[in-house]
Fold Small ribosomal subunit protein uS15 N-terminal domain-containing protein.
Amino acid sequence: MGRMHAPGKGISSSALPYRRAPPSWLKTTQEDVVEHIAKLARKGLTPSQIGVVLRDSHGIPQVRFVTGNKILRILKSNGALFTLILPYALSLPQGVEIELTIVGLIIIGLAPSIPEDLWHLVKKAVAVRKHLETNRKDKDSKFRLILIESRIHRLARYYKTKQQIPPSFKYDSATASTLIA
């Protein structure tokens, strides 16, 4: 399959083992892996960084083979359930006042608020825009920035249809640096 903004047709990818069972030499239990994932997520690591740390430091080749779930699904299910109680006063005409209490449940998980690939594209666009502030004549970077931003818009549209980001999400280059902060 061809690339979106490049002439290449490379099909290189990693070769996963056919057997989906955890390796026989792996002594780590499913609960230990989930604890490691939650601990690393609380430190602020992204799901792909968590996978690299588990592979390199703890010898866990594929989290999915051990736990049955991917890292992002584990992070989403590892959330805390909070009850939100908001007092709300409503004034109606003719001096009638109604006081309500709004009760809602909020699930706060350890998963990132925007998907990782979209976050990295926004980060790259911010870096290129910062480069263009000092190097205004760099036409190639300006062209690449247009390509990056069109990828951001395309990915944001996809995630809105899949309800992974709120429908009100809009990429704006002026406020993009606050997204990655």
Observations:
- Residues 23 and 69 are 16 Å apart (CA to CA).
- The first strand starts at residue 80 and ends at 91.
